[in-house]
Amino acid sequence: MSQNKKIGLITSGGDSPGMNACVRAVVRAAKINEIDVCGYYRGFDGVLDNDFIDLDVTSVAQIIQRGGTILKTARCSRFFEKEYRTLAFENLKQNNIDALVVIGGDGSFTGAKILTQEHGLPMIGIPGTIDNDLFGTDFTIGYDTAINTVVEAVDKIRDTAMSHGRVFVVEVMGRDAGFIALRSGIAVGAEAILVPETKTYIEHLLERIGKRRASKGSAIVIVSEGDDFGNADKVVEAIKERYENLDVKLTRLGHIQRGGNPSAMDRVLASFLGAGAIDAFLENKFGIMIGMQNKKVVHVPLEKAIKHHQDIDENLLKLAEMLSI
Ligand code: F6P
Fold it and tell me: How far does residue 132's CA lie from ligand 1's centre (Å)?
């Protein structure tokens, strides 16, 4: 039997482009340091079901460019129950896992943190979510690709919106966070951007849409699915009620935002953070999220990463407001 240290690796929660690049980086950085890596399928579900694969250098070849995750992913409902968390810990112990590396978002980190609290299992988090809503890292893995997907789609919508003189309401992902809406909205020159972090004043919005449509001939409204006024259906309804003669269409971009080949930015970020997790393991640093701040890899206490939910950038909000005249 190998005398090497061994880590368990999962991708968990909603998938994000770049997760594979991160898996590759974790495995290769581990192998260089003679650490074994056991990849569990479908996040915590795989840990509970003992569904895993021993990963080596070649098993992560040809995946850096692929979207999704070769380890598959899931939102594990069983993990809410204490008895299943105990089972997870026992399975990991039996498999000689020294630490668990979790690539995911705040839900996944919360699960892993409870496992540490209840059973003392060391863990390291890597931010993998298109939402970019984790505190302590400038960007999360998948965010850049997702906003580029939105931009590509909305540029196309803009063409037809202009040709027909229509108003398009485009719903983007972000249940609790408006980062996708805000950055992609600025990039496509949206006439209005609705994010959950700021209150939506519907009267103000309707007035703005009417004016922009009149001056420019068409208008694009980007709506975060979690906006406080409601989702895109509600926004379309309100516009139609106010402007009976306006041609209003709804496009819900949905899960195309989570797929596709990761951008160069996401591949490089994923590579840095994956290698950073192994550095942290070698330094015995646990209960942290590996983040990137000002181009430097940093360690963020997990507690902070989860609880402090990144604030929306006021400067970006102002910029969007100023330029959408
Ligand atoms: O957390 C990432 C995310 O894509 C959110 O933006 C979105 O609200 C959610 O996942 C959708 O999750 P599911 O694919 O489970 O419906």
Answer: 12
Q: How far apart are CA 255 and CA 262, in angstroms?
A: 15
Check: CB of residue 180 under 8 Å from CB of residue 147: yes
Give 4's DSSP letter.
S
User: What are the chain's domains?
Assistant: 6-142+262-307 (3.40.50.450), 144-258 (3.40.50.460)
- Sequence-ordered alpha helix ranges (H) in the chain: 19-32, 44-49, 82-94, 106-119, 143-164, 179-188, 202-216, 232-242, 264-282, 302-307, 314-323
- For residue range 98-148, list pLDDT tens digits in order: 999 999 999 999 999 999 999 999 999 999 999 999 999 999 999 999 999
Cα(2) to centroid(ligand 1), Å: 39
Pocket of ligand 1 (CB under 6 A): 14, 105, 129-131, 173-175, 225, 258
Is 45 catalytic? The answer is: no
Q: For residue range 269-289, what is the model confidence (pLDDT) as tens digits?
A: 999 999 999 999 999 999 999
* Ligand 1 atom with the shortest distance to the CA of 13: 1
